[in-house]
Protein backbone atom coordinates (compact mmCIF):
# COMPACT_ATOMS: atom_id res chain seq x y z
CA UNK A 1 0.00 0.00 0.00
CA UNK A 2 1.29 3.45 -0.86
CA UNK A 3 2.40 5.49 2.14
CA UNK A 4 -0.11 8.25 1.35
CA UNK A 5 -2.95 5.71 1.48
CA UNK A 6 -1.72 4.39 4.83
CA UNK A 7 -1.62 7.90 6.26
CA UNK A 8 -5.05 8.82 4.86
CA UNK A 9 -6.65 5.61 6.12
CA UNK A 10 -5.09 6.07 9.56
CA UNK A 11 -6.35 9.66 9.77
CA UNK A 12 -9.86 8.56 8.74
CA UNK A 13 -9.92 5.87 11.42
CA UNK A 14 -8.65 8.19 14.15
CA UNK A 15 -11.17 10.85 13.25
CA UNK A 16 -14.04 8.35 13.37
CA UNK A 17 -12.76 6.95 16.67
CA UNK A 18 -12.94 10.44 18.13
CA UNK A 19 -16.50 10.87 16.81
CA UNK A 20 -17.46 7.59 18.51
CA UNK A 21 -16.24 8.97 21.84
CA UNK A 22 -12.81 7.39 22.16
CA UNK A 23 -10.37 9.69 23.92
CA UNK A 24 -7.28 8.30 22.21
CA UNK A 25 -6.48 6.08 19.25
CA UNK A 26 -3.06 4.71 18.28
CA UNK A 27 -1.66 2.16 15.86
CA UNK A 28 1.11 -0.41 16.12
CA UNK A 29 2.38 -3.14 13.82
CA UNK A 30 0.80 -6.55 14.41
CA UNK A 31 3.93 -8.41 15.41
CA UNK A 32 5.25 -10.71 18.12
CA UNK A 33 5.50 -9.00 21.53
CA UNK A 34 9.10 -9.98 22.15
CA UNK A 35 9.62 -7.87 25.29
CA UNK A 36 6.44 -9.12 26.92
CA UNK A 37 7.08 -12.86 26.47
CA UNK A 38 9.58 -13.36 29.33
CA UNK A 39 7.67 -11.00 31.63
CA UNK A 40 4.40 -12.85 31.13
CA UNK A 41 6.08 -16.23 31.54
CA UNK A 42 7.75 -15.20 34.80
CA UNK A 43 4.53 -13.65 36.16
CA UNK A 44 2.62 -16.87 35.45
CA UNK A 45 5.39 -19.10 36.81
CA UNK A 46 5.32 -17.13 40.07
CA UNK A 47 1.55 -17.76 40.24
CA UNK A 48 0.76 -14.05 40.40
CA UNK A 49 -2.49 -14.72 38.55
CA UNK A 50 -3.87 -16.72 41.51
CA UNK A 51 -7.06 -18.52 40.53
CA UNK A 52 -7.33 -16.60 37.25
CA UNK A 53 -6.46 -19.76 35.31
CA UNK A 54 -7.56 -18.16 32.04
CA UNK A 55 -4.47 -15.92 32.20
CA UNK A 56 -2.29 -18.97 31.51
CA UNK A 57 -4.35 -20.06 28.50
CA UNK A 58 -3.43 -19.23 24.90
CA UNK A 59 0.07 -18.05 25.84
CA UNK A 60 1.18 -17.83 22.18
CA UNK A 61 -1.95 -15.97 21.11
CA UNK A 62 -1.44 -13.37 23.83
CA UNK A 63 1.93 -12.54 22.32
CA UNK A 64 1.18 -12.73 18.60
CA UNK A 65 -1.97 -11.11 17.14
CA UNK A 66 -1.41 -12.91 13.84
CA UNK A 67 -2.60 -16.06 15.62
CA UNK A 68 -5.89 -14.30 16.37
CA UNK A 69 -6.44 -12.68 12.96
CA UNK A 70 -4.97 -14.27 9.87
CA UNK A 71 -2.50 -12.02 8.05
CA UNK A 72 -2.95 -9.29 10.69
CA UNK A 73 -1.01 -6.12 9.84
CA UNK A 74 -2.14 -3.55 12.42
CA UNK A 75 -3.33 -3.33 16.01
CA UNK A 76 -5.47 -0.26 16.67
CA UNK A 77 -5.57 0.58 20.39
CA UNK A 78 -8.32 2.80 21.76
CA UNK A 79 -8.99 4.38 25.15
CA UNK A 80 -12.49 5.17 26.43
CA UNK A 81 -12.89 7.40 29.48
CA UNK A 82 -15.00 6.21 32.43
CA UNK A 83 -14.04 8.74 35.10
CA UNK A 84 -17.30 9.78 36.82
CA UNK A 85 -18.58 13.31 37.26
CA UNK A 86 -19.17 12.59 40.93
CA UNK A 87 -17.48 10.02 43.10
CA UNK A 88 -19.91 7.86 45.03
CA UNK A 89 -19.34 6.32 48.47
CA UNK A 90 -17.18 9.10 49.93
CA UNK A 91 -18.33 8.87 53.56
CA UNK A 92 -15.99 6.93 55.83
CA UNK A 93 -18.80 4.48 56.64
CA UNK A 94 -19.76 3.81 52.99
CA UNK A 95 -19.10 0.47 51.35
CA UNK A 96 -17.37 1.09 48.03
CA UNK A 97 -17.66 -0.09 44.44
CA UNK A 98 -14.98 0.64 41.83
CA UNK A 99 -15.72 3.58 39.54
CA UNK A 100 -15.63 1.39 36.43
CA UNK A 101 -18.74 -0.41 37.72
CA UNK A 102 -20.93 2.66 38.30
CA UNK A 103 -22.86 2.19 35.05
CA UNK A 104 -23.47 -0.29 32.23
CA UNK A 105 -20.89 -3.03 31.73
CA UNK A 106 -18.10 -1.59 29.59
CA UNK A 107 -17.83 -4.82 27.58
CA UNK A 108 -21.15 -3.98 25.92
CA UNK A 109 -20.61 -0.24 25.55
CA UNK A 110 -17.08 -0.28 24.15
CA UNK A 111 -17.61 -3.39 22.01
CA UNK A 112 -20.56 -1.72 20.25
CA UNK A 113 -18.39 1.29 19.45
CA UNK A 114 -15.59 -0.92 18.13
CA UNK A 115 -18.07 -2.73 15.88
CA UNK A 116 -19.24 0.63 14.57
CA UNK A 117 -15.61 1.54 13.84
CA UNK A 118 -15.06 -1.69 11.88
CA UNK A 119 -18.24 -1.03 9.92
CA UNK A 120 -16.98 2.48 9.10
CA UNK A 121 -13.62 1.07 7.92
CA UNK A 122 -15.36 -1.38 5.60
CA UNK A 123 -17.62 1.32 4.19
CA UNK A 124 -14.91 3.97 3.72
CA UNK A 125 -11.75 1.96 3.07
CA UNK A 126 -12.88 -1.48 1.92
CA UNK A 127 -13.38 -5.02 3.14
CA UNK A 128 -11.06 -6.04 5.97
CA UNK A 129 -10.46 -9.17 7.96
CA UNK A 130 -10.44 -8.17 11.59
CA UNK A 131 -11.73 -8.61 15.12
CA UNK A 132 -12.66 -6.31 17.98
CA UNK A 133 -11.51 -7.00 21.52
CA UNK A 134 -12.53 -5.54 24.89
CA UNK A 135 -10.85 -7.38 27.74
CA UNK A 136 -12.49 -10.56 26.44
CA UNK A 137 -9.79 -12.55 24.61
CA UNK A 138 -6.08 -13.34 24.95
CA UNK A 139 -4.87 -9.84 24.03
CA UNK A 140 -2.24 -8.00 26.10
CA UNK A 141 -4.10 -4.73 25.79
CA UNK A 142 -1.77 -2.61 27.93
CA UNK A 143 1.26 -3.75 25.95
CA UNK A 144 -0.43 -2.82 22.66
CA UNK A 145 -1.67 0.50 24.03
CA UNK A 146 1.89 1.30 25.14
CA UNK A 147 3.31 0.40 21.71
CA UNK A 148 0.61 2.51 20.07
CA UNK A 149 1.53 5.63 22.06
CA UNK A 150 -1.62 5.86 24.21
CA UNK A 151 0.50 6.12 27.33
CA UNK A 152 2.97 4.23 29.50
CA UNK A 153 2.44 1.41 31.97
CA UNK A 154 2.71 2.88 35.46
CA UNK A 155 4.18 1.36 38.59
CA UNK A 156 0.68 0.12 39.49
CA UNK A 157 0.63 -1.71 36.10
CA UNK A 158 -2.25 0.41 34.73
CA UNK A 159 -1.80 2.43 31.56
CA UNK A 160 -1.22 6.13 32.26
CA UNK A 161 -1.81 9.05 29.94
CA UNK A 162 -0.55 12.58 30.64
CA UNK A 163 -3.81 14.20 29.49
CA UNK A 164 -6.29 11.98 31.37
CA UNK A 165 -4.59 9.75 33.93
CA UNK A 166 -5.69 6.11 34.03
CA UNK A 167 -9.47 5.92 34.42
CA UNK A 168 -10.22 4.57 30.96
CA UNK A 169 -11.05 1.27 29.29
CA UNK A 170 -8.90 -0.17 26.53
CA UNK A 171 -10.12 -1.84 23.36
CA UNK A 172 -8.40 -3.12 20.24
CA UNK A 173 -9.06 -3.79 16.59
CA UNK A 174 -6.72 -6.30 14.99
CA UNK A 175 -6.92 -5.92 11.22
CA UNK A 176 -5.25 -7.16 8.04
CA UNK A 177 -5.02 -3.51 6.97
CA UNK A 178 -1.66 -1.77 6.86
CA UNK A 179 -1.72 1.57 8.67
CA UNK A 180 0.66 4.31 9.76
CA UNK A 181 2.23 3.27 13.07
CA UNK A 182 2.57 5.42 16.18
CA UNK A 183 5.53 5.12 18.52
CA UNK A 184 5.56 4.64 22.29
CA UNK A 185 5.81 7.53 24.73
CA UNK A 186 8.26 7.77 27.64
CA UNK A 187 7.56 6.77 31.22
CA UNK A 188 6.59 9.76 33.39
CA UNK A 189 6.29 8.01 36.77
CA UNK A 190 9.67 9.30 37.83
CA UNK A 191 10.54 8.62 41.48
CA UNK A 192 6.89 8.61 42.62
CA UNK A 193 5.82 5.57 44.68
CA UNK A 194 2.40 6.73 45.88
CA UNK A 195 0.56 3.73 44.40
CA UNK A 196 3.01 1.28 45.98
CA UNK A 197 2.85 3.02 49.36
CA UNK A 198 -0.96 3.22 49.36
CA UNK A 199 -1.82 -0.39 48.49
CA UNK A 200 -3.15 -1.89 51.75
CA UNK A 201 -2.52 -5.51 50.72
CA UNK A 202 0.98 -4.90 49.28
CA UNK A 203 -0.15 -6.20 45.89
CA UNK A 204 2.40 -4.01 44.07
CA UNK A 205 5.35 -6.19 45.01
CA UNK A 206 7.86 -4.01 43.16
CA UNK A 207 7.54 -1.10 40.72
CA UNK A 208 5.60 -2.22 37.63
CA UNK A 209 4.82 -5.68 39.06
CA UNK A 210 1.43 -6.47 40.61
CA UNK A 211 0.74 -9.78 42.30
CA UNK A 212 -2.83 -10.23 41.09
CA UNK A 213 -3.53 -12.78 43.80
CA UNK A 214 -2.98 -10.10 46.49
CA UNK A 215 -5.11 -7.38 44.90
CA UNK A 216 -8.41 -6.28 46.49
CA UNK A 217 -10.03 -6.41 43.04
CA UNK A 218 -8.97 -10.06 42.76
CA UNK A 219 -10.31 -10.94 46.19
CA UNK A 220 -13.67 -9.22 45.61
CA UNK A 221 -14.26 -10.30 41.99
CA UNK A 222 -12.10 -13.19 40.79
CA UNK A 223 -11.70 -15.30 43.94
CA UNK A 224 -14.59 -17.75 44.23
CA UNK A 225 -13.82 -19.18 47.68
CA UNK A 226 -13.53 -17.59 51.09
CA UNK A 227 -11.28 -14.53 51.34
CA UNK A 228 -8.10 -15.32 53.33
CA UNK A 229 -8.14 -14.23 56.95
CA UNK A 230 -4.72 -12.57 56.69
CA UNK A 231 -6.17 -9.67 54.68
CA UNK A 232 -8.91 -8.90 57.21
CA UNK A 233 -9.09 -5.22 58.03
CA UNK A 234 -7.19 -4.22 54.88
CA UNK A 235 -10.01 -3.68 52.38
CA UNK A 236 -10.88 -0.09 53.39
CA UNK A 237 -14.57 -0.85 52.72
CA UNK A 238 -14.13 -2.00 49.08
CA UNK A 239 -16.72 -4.64 48.22
CA UNK A 240 -16.31 -4.74 44.42
CA UNK A 241 -12.99 -3.84 42.86
CA UNK A 242 -10.63 -1.19 44.21
CA UNK A 243 -9.43 2.23 42.99
CA UNK A 244 -6.82 3.03 45.64
CA UNK A 245 -3.71 2.90 43.43
CA UNK A 246 -5.42 5.06 40.81
CA UNK A 247 -6.97 7.50 43.28
CA UNK A 248 -3.58 8.38 44.78
CA UNK A 249 -1.82 8.72 41.39
CA UNK A 250 -0.88 12.37 40.69
CA UNK A 251 -1.62 11.94 36.99
CA UNK A 252 -5.30 11.41 37.76
CA UNK A 253 -5.65 15.05 38.73
CA UNK A 254 -6.05 15.49 34.95
CA UNK A 255 -8.96 13.04 34.73
CA UNK A 256 -12.11 14.61 33.26
CA UNK A 257 -15.70 13.37 33.66
CA UNK A 258 -16.82 10.96 30.95
CA UNK A 259 -19.56 11.95 28.50
CA UNK A 260 -21.05 8.47 28.08
CA UNK A 261 -24.68 8.32 29.27
CA UNK A 262 -24.49 4.55 29.79
CA UNK A 263 -21.75 4.99 32.40
CA UNK A 264 -23.86 7.28 34.59
CA UNK A 265 -24.84 5.66 37.90
CA UNK A 266 -28.50 5.03 38.61
CA UNK A 267 -30.30 7.03 41.29
CA UNK A 268 -30.62 3.87 43.36
CA UNK A 269 -26.86 3.19 43.31
CA UNK A 270 -26.10 6.81 44.23
CA UNK A 271 -28.17 6.49 47.38
CA UNK A 272 -26.87 3.13 48.61
CA UNK A 273 -25.74 3.30 52.22
CA UNK A 274 -24.10 0.65 54.39
CA UNK A 275 -27.42 -0.62 55.75
CA UNK A 276 -28.79 -0.98 52.19
CA UNK A 277 -25.78 -3.08 51.17
CA UNK A 278 -25.98 -5.25 54.27
CA UNK A 279 -29.69 -5.93 53.71
CA UNK A 280 -29.56 -6.37 49.90
CA UNK A 281 -31.94 -8.99 48.49
CA UNK A 282 -31.89 -10.98 45.25
CA UNK A 283 -34.65 -8.76 43.84
CA UNK A 284 -32.76 -5.54 44.61
CA UNK A 285 -29.50 -7.02 43.30
CA UNK A 286 -31.11 -7.97 39.96
CA UNK A 287 -32.60 -4.50 39.45
CA UNK A 288 -29.61 -2.52 40.72
CA UNK A 289 -27.03 -4.44 38.69
CA UNK A 290 -29.07 -5.52 35.65
CA UNK A 291 -26.42 -4.51 33.09
CA UNK A 292 -23.56 -3.91 35.51
CA UNK A 293 -20.13 -5.57 35.88
CA UNK A 294 -21.14 -6.25 39.51
CA UNK A 295 -23.28 -9.11 38.19
CA UNK A 296 -20.04 -11.10 37.90
CA UNK A 297 -19.91 -11.75 41.63
CA UNK A 298 -23.55 -12.84 41.81
CA UNK A 299 -25.41 -11.95 45.00
CA UNK A 300 -23.64 -14.63 47.01
CA UNK A 301 -20.21 -13.25 46.12
CA UNK A 302 -21.23 -9.68 46.89
CA UNK A 303 -22.66 -10.75 50.25
CA UNK A 304 -19.43 -12.61 51.02
CA UNK A 305 -17.49 -9.37 50.35
CA UNK A 306 -19.88 -7.27 52.44
CA UNK A 307 -19.70 -9.77 55.29
CA UNK A 308 -15.89 -9.85 55.13
CA UNK A 309 -15.64 -6.05 55.33
CA UNK A 310 -18.28 -5.97 58.08
CA UNK A 311 -16.36 -8.46 60.21
CA UNK A 312 -13.17 -6.53 59.61
CA UNK A 313 -14.53 -3.36 61.16
Structural account:
This protein is an alpha+beta fold. Helix 1 runs antiparallel to helix 4. The chain contains 12 helices and 10 strands. It folds into 2 domains: 157 residues, NADH Oxidase; 119 residues, no CATH class. The strands form 4 sheets. Strands 1-2-7-4 form a 4-stranded antiparallel sheet, sandwiched between helices. It has a two-stranded parallel sheet with strand order 3-10. Strand 5 and strand 6 form a beta hairpin.
How is the topology of this model organized?
Blueprint: H1 3-19, E1 24-29, H2 36-45, H3 59-63, E2 74-81, E3 96-97, H4 106-124, E4 130-133, H5 141-147, E5 152-153, E6 159-160, E7 168-175, H6 194-198, E8 204-206, E9 209-210, H7 216-222, E10 238-240, H8 244-247, H9 267-270, H10 274-278, H11 282-288, H12 298-312
Parallel strand pairs: 3-10
Antiparallel strand pairs: 1-2, 2-7, 4-7, 5-6, 8-9
